[in-house]
Specification:
The structure is a homodimer of 245-residue chains. Chain A has 245 residues and is mainly alpha-helical. Chain A is 71% helix and 3% strand. Chain A has 2 domains: 66 residues, Winged helix-like DNA-binding domain superfamily/Winged helix DNA-binding domain (Arc Repressor Mutant, subunit A), CATH 1.10.10; 163 residues, Four Helix Bundle (Hemerythrin (Met), subunit A) (Up-down Bundle), CATH 1.20.120. In chain A, helix 2 crosses helix 3 and helix 5 runs antiparallel to helix 11. Chain A starts with 10 loop residues before the first helix and ends with a helix. The structure holds a DNA duplex (30 and 30 nucleotides).
DNA sequence: GCAAGCCAATTGTCCGACAATTAAAACATA
DNA sequence: TATGTTTTAATTGTCGGACAATTGGCTTGC
């Protein structure tokens, strides 16, 4: 087999790229078995260790799975939604935390995307989604809930809203924006007063979705964005002041 | 160092997870140097090969970079937008191609997300974005353009629209939806008539963005979605008929 | 002071060996 | 023959050692 890739990269990276391209191009289909490590060593003319390092790279990207024993080997793996979600969320979270994205930018993106889902969610929501949204709203009104649990419940509610749109592609893309904001949201201290405000907006949002009133849902999401931004700015201002001491 | 992870997984996977968690938790900051492979072998009590396989997994996820020579080693890597984009697009494309997502679903998600950007793009667009959109629209009206180039130009135009919103988080999330649709779009044969129609809508869209008329942009995107869906359905119907012969 | 060369640390690659796992083949038994 | 057991072969997982390649710092000579 040939490897006409960047010659300055490591051999294991070149080999991984070669196989990755074959999978992405569709030259190898799902569940197809790759040659054994020994055969790959021969084909690429490298040691088994190097082949193994290449295969581990592919495994890290969920492109292959390996199985031991006779008739074992490496197989092209079907990328499931669940795994893709997980990878997407991890990457998004790291991207935000490592690149100092402002609270405003993340917040704006999140709510813009949610508003994009809202009309579809209104149209297609079923009782399950509404029940989840109501249950999470109720949980958020419980006194004694930790800030972290409040945030987690918030994410669950918004996830229900997104899922109500019944579009897996949309859910997948949204997951990154919503979940990646959680670390930022966790920095906020939610007072009783602010929780009350948020719960109120969540109620209005759920009502709108139930009534299939897209305009009202859009309005509620705008209100939520404005209020979240307000809370976030207070926190950032306090942090800035503290660091300036 | 401890590894209290799933004991049924490979050692290299456990070690990779252990280090990955440390990076994600923020225990290791960007550009911090990991212990050398030899030290990691000692700490985790495994062979150097196993450590190397773990490190290759992390490198495949762009979490670390390695450097040879004295004062070399593995360093926590800052995840750049460019790399995250690339990973995101690859994953999104594979997710669509491996899971038989319908053209309708992908199309709906794409345009819903683009409509989410439109108001911000109208507000913040600058001459560069408008120029790109106009240039790509013009290119699309050139006779003799291949279907593939037409698609690529289409993506470029929509990318300019998204970038005009000046929100990198939004651009990042959108990239997955827009670019992942390209393989599906490439299956479409664009007739002179359909190109004319699309170019017309693109012109209206660009006009709307220039005039900062969000409602008009939204309308154009709705029209584009409806027309794309129409074209896609024809192709899918033809394919279904052909496979039924 | 400076340049050249040497040195040590570190990753990259290779090799050979053995353990663990697993499916299939061979075999034994009722 | 049917069935359960054992053996075998293929394959990945792990280990240890060896050497090459790279690279920054140190030493030495001038």
């Amino acid at each position: 087999m040939k490897i006409d890739t960047d010659p300055k990269a490591d051999l294991s990276a070149q080999i991984a790229k070669s196989i990755r391209d074959a999978i992405i191009n569709g030259d190898m289909i799902v569940d197809e078995r790759l040659p054994s490590e020994a055969e790959l060593s021969d084909q690429f003319d490298v040691s088994r260790s190097t082949v193994r390092e290449a295969l581990k790279r592919l495994a890290a990207q969920s492109l292959i799975r390996t199985q031991r024993g006779a008739s074992g080997g490496a197989f092209v793996r079907r990328l499931s939604y669940e795994e893709a979600y997980g990878q997407h969320i991890t990457t998004s979270t790291l991207l935000l935390s490592m690149n100092a994205v402002s609270f405003e930018t993340a917040c704006e993106a999140r709510y813009a995307l949610e508003r994009a889902c809202a009309p579809m969610a209104c149209e297609r929501r079923n009782p399950d989604h509404l029940a989840t949204m109501r249950a999470e709203t109720h949980r958020q009104s419980q006194p004694g809930l930790s800030d972290e649990s409040f945030c987690a419940s918030d994410v669950a509610l918004h996830r229900a809203l997104v899922d109500a749109a019944h579009n897996p592609v949309l859910s997948y893309q949204l997951a990154g924006a919503v979940e990646a904001m959680q670390p930022l949201m966790n920095m906020i201290t939610f007072t009783a007063r602010s929780r009350e405000e948020i719960v109120g907006i969540h109620s209005r949002l759920t009502d709108a979705v139930e009534a299939q009133d897209a305009a009202k849902a859009d309005h509620a999401l705008h209100a939520l964005e404005a209020y979240t931004l307000h809370l976030g700015r207070d926190v950032m201002a306090a942090r800035a002041q503290k660091s300036g001491d």
